[in-house]
Amino acid sequence: MKSIITVIITIVCIVAGGFGGNFLRTMTSGSSEPEAGAAEAAGAAEGEKAEGDNAEKKEAKASKPDKKDGKDGKDDKDGKDGKEGDAAPAVIYYKFTREFVVPIIRNGRVSSLVILNLNLEADASMGRKLYDMEPKLRDNIMTTLITLSNDGTTFESMTSVKNYESIRSLVLQNLGSVVKEGITNVLIVDLAKQDI
């Protein structure tokens, strides 16, 4: 019986403590809500002021030349006032959208096909012009390659350096009739022959 009374008193104390703690918490939170709201508003105002100050500092820094990078804010990578770091490439390599397929005709029929992948080395300013003129360039190159296929010797020996250079020089020479200047070299990237 004595132990039952002790258990009941313990439960009553725990419940009373819970109610008392809850009561105190609601009393203190109710009175501190306005203060908390005022503190949050003040903190937000200070944050906005700090952001405004940071933005002004960044703008001022951006408008001043950076002395670390070189003279007058130019990038001085090589110690030459940033002139070498900003240099654009002098040449481009124009790649055609597809290979050139040249039929080799012997005795009135196609005996084999030669497939060439050509690139043009040109001045950097020619990139857009070459792209716009690709159909005309392809026509000119195909005419040259067909002429070479009919001579009976150029495409016969695929490993001959002389024939390789003949293809390159004749294509480059004939391209001069379409593009007067700017193309400096013809690169034969791939060359293959398939007998039929």
Note the overall shape: rod-shaped
Low-confidence segments: 31-39, 41-45, 58-83
Q: Mean of the pLDDT scores?
A: 74
Approximately what portion of the residues adopt beta-strand conformation? 15-25%
What's a concise summary of this model?
With 196 residues, the protein is α+β, with helices and mostly antiparallel strands.
Compile the SSE list and pairings.
Blueprint: H1 2-63, E1 91-95, E2 100-106, E3 109-123, H2 127-132, H3 134-149, H4 161-175, E4 183-195
Antiparallel strand pairs: 1-3, 2-3, 3-4
Helix pairs in contact: 3-4
Walkthrough of the structure:
With 196 residues, the protein is an alpha+beta fold. The chain folds into 2 domains: 2-68; 91-195. 51% of the residues lie in helices and 20% in strands. The chain contains 4 helices and 4 strands. The protein has helices at 2-63, 127-132, 134-149, 161-175; strands at residues 91-95, 100-106, 109-123, 183-195. Strands 1, 2, 3 and 4 form a 4-stranded antiparallel beta sheet that branches. A hairpin with a 2-residue loop joins β2 and β3 (109-123). α3 (134-149) packs across α4 (161-175). The longest helix has 62 residues, at 2-63. The chain starts with a helix and ends with a strand. The model is unreliable at 31-39, 41-45 and 58-83 (pLDDT under 50).
